[in-house]
Predict the structure.
Amino acid sequence: MVQEDRSALKRAASLQVIATYGCILLWVFLSTTVIMVNKYVLAYSGFPFPVTLTLIHMLFCSSVATLLITTGIVQPVNMPNDLYFRGVVPIALLFSLVLWLGNAAYMYLSVSFIQMLKAAMPVTVFSAGIILGTERYEFNLAANLAVITIGVGIASYGEMHFVLVGLLLQGASVILESFRLGLIQIILQSKGIKLNPVTTLYYIAPACAAFLCIPFYFLELPKMLDPASDWKLDAPLLLGSAVSALGESEPVVSVIQGGFWEQI
C-alpha cells in the first residue's frame, strides 16, 4: 500500500514537472511572438505609438477578463476598496509605465539587444528588494549578480545599433518592473490576497488602461489627429498583437500558480 502511494506521488510529481516545462516552453514561444509582433508594429508597420499599442493590450485584456467573470466562467475575488486603491492601483501605475517604456524601446533598439538588457532583471530585482526591505544582502549572491552586470555591460558596449534613448527607456522599464514585483510582495502578499490569472487582469488591466489614457491624450492623440502625420492602422495586426499579449500572460502565471500567485 505504501509503495503504491509512493508510485502515485511520483507519477503526480512527474506530470507536474511535464506540465510546468510545457507551460515554460509555451511562454517562451508566446513571449517571442509578442516581442517580434510589437517590434514590427512599432518600427515597421507605420504605427509608431507605443502608448496606444499598450493601451489596446490593456483594454483587450480587461474586456476578456470582465467577460469571463461576468459570465460566471471564473469566480471573482473579494477585493476591499481600500486595498484596491492602496495596493492594486500603485502596482497598476508601475505596470503601465513598465509596458509603455518597454514597448517604446522597440522603436530604438534591436530585439536581441533588448533581450540582453532584460537579462539584468535579477540584479535590479535584488537591488529593489534590498531597498524595499524584502531581500537581505548576501555577498555570494551579490558576486554572482555582479557577473551578470558585467556581461550586460560588455553586450551593451559591443552593440552595433546602440541608441542611448532606447537604452534609457528599457533600463527604466526593467527598474520599475523590479519595484513593482517588490510592491506586490509587500502590499498584496501581506494581506493574503490570492489572485488567479483572470482576476489579476480583471483588477490590474483596467487601472493600467486608465493611467495610459493620460499620456495617450497628451502625447500620441495629437499626432494621430494631425492631417500631416503619415501612419497606418492595421486592425488585424493590432488585434493579433493584443491576443498574443493576452496569451503570453496565461502560461507564465500557470507556471507560478502553485507558488507566487498562490501567495498573493
About this structure: Residues 113 and 159 are 7 Å apart (CA to CA).
